[in-house]
Amino acid sequence: MKFGGTSIADGKKIRHVAKLLKDYHEEGNQIVAVTSALGGVTDGLFNNAIEASRKGKVSHVKEFMVDLAKKHYDAISDAIDDEKIIDETVEQIDTRIDELEKALIGICYLGELTPRSIDYISSYGERLAVPIVSGAIRSLGIRSKALTGGEAGIVTTDEYGNARPLERTYGQIKQTLSQLIEDHVPVVTGFIAESENGIITTLGRGGSDFSAAMIGASLNADEIWLWKEVHGIMTSDPKIVPNAKPIPQISYIEAMELSYFGAKVLHPRTIEPAIKHGIPVRVKNTFDINFEGTLIVADQRPSESVVKAVTLIRNVTTINISGAGMVGTIGTAARVFSILADAGVNIIMISQSSSEANLSFVVEDSDLDDAIEALRSVMHNDVIRDVVHNKDVCVIAVVGAGMDGIPGVAGRVFNAIGQKMINVIMISQGSSQHNISFVVSEKDAVPAIQLLNREFELGTDPSGE
User: How many domains does the chain contain in total?
Assistant: First the structure.
């Protein structure tokens, strides 16, 4: 069971989570809890590390540490009611606060922040949270032990900020936790692990889900549960479509498509271990525990309306490269994408005209400058003549296993969009036919999402049916 930052935002919510774990444990379930940092802590750590490297003000570090310590002391006070356990937990928090303060002050004096340092600093969010969650469980009479990801057995490459687990991780987790779960509820830090040399690494933002999936796969769990503040995976973002509804069941491939195309409920890599080991993943609401949530399984069950969900990616830019010399020139696309890969630019979607005179693709806004600079290196020849970009766009993805082999789905999508005079800038559809993605102007994105939800009847009606 993995709990996100919203689920353990403060001491009262941690107490709620501890009671939830106690109830499931007493029903005879063997459970491992994986926890994120308290709400907002990881962002605070990252921002203060950057400020320390740029401004070097020790006084600012000390102020931040006072506030951070108080946030966790308050959480302890609200989450734990056993004085002995409170004292033990405070002692652990004090030790880690002291370590963190020394590291941040060191960054002040050095004036630099390496990827390894960022991983070390940002790991403290989870490392401060797990003693409190574990302490809250113990205060309810259930045995519990707090572990870092490294202590649990997660060993990774040393790609700081986006480390990859090594294959032996699964065996090590099983060895560490299989006996412990018989009479304990272990609480493991999400998001962080260790390299082969014992150096702290992180799995990327949102990687707590990934940690939980690896642990579940290692222990051959019946299910992997991701506790969120929502009722499951929704047909659309409820902020855009107020009558969006939870999807009761979805396939691994559909969930991967949705997570890649902007749905923030799942980390894109989360379900890789689940797929490999055939373990269902369930997304549930921490604050409405009786609601079944969304079950993610191997089966691709088409919905009656064919489409399962419509999602939106903001903060993206289209780039179009063109030139008559591109026509029939072998290796142009390969060269372009190799250069972008070397620049660390991730390409979200691709489209090429049949004439081969144009090649369009979408990148995140944060990658735009690097992409343009990289492309300039191939503009001096006679092949590519022009590179233009458009930042005022969004990507919309229509996802559903039921689209595979059903004629007319694309027609319905673009007919609905066209009737409202919404211009489609770029289109991409994979051969799997599980998703149709396209680009529209930013001003048209929300109306397009709402139109498609009505077209494919993805929301509840006013009566709630």
Answer: 2
Is residue 396 within 8 Å of 310, Cβ to Cβ?
yes
pTM: 0.86
E strands of 118-177, at which residues?
Answer: 144-147, 155-156
Decide if 237 is inside a domain. no
Residue found under tokens 């529209």: 440
Q: Closest Cα to residue 324, out of 272, 381, 284? A: 381
Residues 438 and 317 reside in one and the same domain: yes
- Please give the chain's pLDDT, 465 residues, in tens: 999 999 999 999 999 999 999 999 999 999 999 999 999 999 999 999 999 999 999 999 999 999 999 999 999 999 999 999 999 999 999 999 999 999 999 999 999 999 999 999 999 999 999 999 999 999 999 999 999 999 999 999 999 998 999 999 999 999 999 999 999 999 999 999 999 999 999 998 668 999 999 999 999 999 999 998 888 999 998 889 999 999 999 988 888 888 777 666 677 677 789 888 899 999 999 999 999 999 999 876 655 668 889 999 999 999 998 876 666 667 778 888 898 999 989 898 998 766 567 889 999 999 999 999 988 877 756 667 788 999 999 999 999 877 776 778 889 999 999 999 999 999 987 655 688 999 999 999 999 999 999 999 887 643 343
CATH code for position 406: 3.30.2130.10
Q: Are 461 and 242 in contact (CB under 8 A)?
A: no
φ and ψ at 214, to 5 degrees? -65, -45
Same domain, 48 and 183: yes
DSSP one-letter string for 232-287? SSBSS-TTT-TTB-B-SEEEHHHHHHHHHTT-TTS-TTTHHHHHHHT--EEEEETT
Spatial separation of the C-alpha atoms in residues 183 and 415, rounded to whole Å: 59
Q: Can you give the CATH number for the domain in which 132 is found?
A: 3.40.1160.10
**Closest C-alpha among 429, 411, 170 to residue 276:** 170
The candidate with the shortest Cα–Cα distance to 119, out of 210, 196, 39, 199, is 199
Same domain (yes/no): 15, 163: yes
CA 233/CA 259 separation, integer angstroms = 10
- What is the extent of the structural domain holding 137? 2-221
